[in-house]
Fold these 2 entries.
Entry 1:
Amino acid sequence: MALAERYGFELKVCRPYRAKTKGKVERFNRYLKESFVVPLAATLKQAGLKLDVEAANQYIGRWLTEVANIRVHATTGERPVVRLAVEQEALLPLPQAGRPLPVRRPMRPIPRESLQHPLAVYDSLLEVAA
């Protein structure tokens, strides 16, 4: 949140289980859980320890270096560490200081549930129009 405020972008909260909006994130979370969290939790459990944030932070750097960033990605066919090196040449540096934040007017929250209706609602609207 602080990074978003500093550099002037908004975080978008996506609804769970919506492949069109969250597919890449959901897939990475699954990969992270299956190849990092579960094996680490099992290893720690054998040693009589419990996985917590501190333990995860202690091991994540090594996992990224030795596992995640050197594997061949199924979609791109490339190693993420190699792909990042190529893309970094085209990336612009972050601004030295964040831009001033615009003044925000208070907004009335809109329940997300009201934005999507069951298909029967749309069917009944189409029947009336026909």
Entry 2:
Amino acid sequence: MYLLDTNIVSDVERRLPKPTAWLASVDPASVNLSVITLGEIERGIVKLRKVDPERATRLDLWLRELRRDNADRILAVTEEVAL
């Protein structure tokens, strides 16, 4: 099981080669997101909206799709998940 942190998710969104290739090489069912990662991305979008509203809107749509497509693999951060 993999729990992706915010940096990896952001790097994949930007299509950086190494994280994108790694993610393509693992079983999608083994990849999870945490609510903390989603919150950090949302916070970044809110900040970005002040300086680049167009990009913020695009990222907001991407985040909605990410949440929808991974709804069954979004984890609350419990002690079990953290360890």
